[in-house]
What we know:
Order of helices and strands: HEHEHHHEEEHEEHHEE
Distance between the termini: 21 Å
Largest sheet: 5 strands, parallel
Strand order of the largest sheet: 1-9-6-3-2
Radius of gyration: 17 Å
Shape: globular
Helix content: 25-40%
Amino acid sequence: MLTEQRNILLNIAVREFTKKGFQVETFDTSEDSLNWLKGEIKTTDVIGFGGSKTLEQIGFFKNFTKTDYPNLLNRNAANLTFDDRVDMWRKALTADVFLCSANGVSVSGELILIDKNGNRNAAATFGPKKRIFIIGWNKLQRDFNAAMEYAKNVAAVQNNLRFQTDNPCTKAGKCLNCNTSDGLCFVTTAITHVVQTFPAILLIIKEDLGF
């Protein structure tokens, strides 16, 4: 029953995101999506990415390394200083390819991103030659309001738990609109349409990925 419902939502999402200018690709498995990425991204491309549990789960970081992709902006490399990371965030704004997920996805064709510093949101909206959003179909929500609710009260809470913050949401299990210095939710962006001169590709995988 759940699979049937998700297939219905998936079909609606493909139609509505396509109407809004996205290129939409669907995949049965993470491996299928990874093979597509290998075909889409050149070894010479400058590659940036946002923090993403989804990218980790599909095996992106194991398959896209500096060895094969020397221009990868690897913000996860060991021994980087904060300034090193900020420099990579800035370079990602003009990358050939930028990859990330989204915190909330509506089948009416909107992506919602909640970020701490806004670097992911900035690259996701303008700058890179190509933007690729990768999501599991567990994130598909019936409309914009439901997607925002999911982004704030599911994805953002799980992200705080992932980083073991002491923010109120980790105890309450929902967003309390806190104003703490350790907050991870200072910048919220909604992408509702794509201008064709700045392409965006949405990959939807028929798996539970991220949160």
